[in-house]
């Protein structure tokens, strides 16, 4: 019994159900490597801002920040908020290279996105993963957003281009800067490989976690300038505002 009805469609490469749960190692007894108990414990994102997916106490609202200053992106899709145990799962995927875990989360995100298409969310033409700064990429050896993008691309049958968005420089420590300087600093950190090809395009930017939205905002502005018609953001998890649960 799924707690999320749309998850029923998740059929993992084999039809048997005796694989182990990737979280607790008990028999999963589902068609994917996650047991019902662990699935129910995931921090499913309920009510959230219609635009940026910030967790909110009521459904159908836009958060204060999006109302005051609408972001350059149109809609964020995230199945979870960034709480326990999802935060540790993402960390295991990113820092301990636990790729089966990353793939499971990507497959679940893909199903969530697919469910949203059925509810009327338009399908994008192209997926663009958020690039990693070169030094970070060297340290980690892979870009987690790029991997999510590839898995999503396969599941949703939408092209993913990992070379279009470039990180032109490392973002220096931002703490010492005021908000305006911080935004400018971030805006200059990204560039596009070939601009004209994005004219009239509907793009979904892919990332693992959406925190303040500043990075996504910077990228969305760049894509808008290049003529993108609509920009959505697909991510695993959305953080609450600092100090909120
Ligand atoms: Zn389990
Ligand atoms: Zn919002």
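^ Assign residues to that structure.
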């Amino acid at each position: 019994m799924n707690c999320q009805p749309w998850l029923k469609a998740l059929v993992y490469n084999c039809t048997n159900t005796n694989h182990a749960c990737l979280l607790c190692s008990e028999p999963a007894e589902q068609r994917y490597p996650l047991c019902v108990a662990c699935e129910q414990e995931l921090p499913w994102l309920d009510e959230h801002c219609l635009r940026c997916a910030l967790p909110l106490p009521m459904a159908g609202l836009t958060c204060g920040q999006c109302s005051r200053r609408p972001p350059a992106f149109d809609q964020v899709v995230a199945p979870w908020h960034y709480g326990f145990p999802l935060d540790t799962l993402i960390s295991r995927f990113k820092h301990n290279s636990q790729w089966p875990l990353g793939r499971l989360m990507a497959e679940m995100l893909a199903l969530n996105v697919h469910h949203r298409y059925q509810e009327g969310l338009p399908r994008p033409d192209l997926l663009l993963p958020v690039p990693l700064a070169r030094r970070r990429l060297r340290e980690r050896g892979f870009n987690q957003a790029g991997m999510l993008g590839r898995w999503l691309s396969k599941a949703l049958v939408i092209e993913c281009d990992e070379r279009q968005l470039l990180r032109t420089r490392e973002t220096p420590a931002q703490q010492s800067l005021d908000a305006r300087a911080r935004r400018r600093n971030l805006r200059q950190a990204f560039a596009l490989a070939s601009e004209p090809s994005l004219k009239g395009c509907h793009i979904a930017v892919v990332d693992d976690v959406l925190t303040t939205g500043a990075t996504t905002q910077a990228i969305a502005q760049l894509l808008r300038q290049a003529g993108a018609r609509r920009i959505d953001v697909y991510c695993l998890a959305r953080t609450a505002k600092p100090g909120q649960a």
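The chain has eight helices and eight strands.
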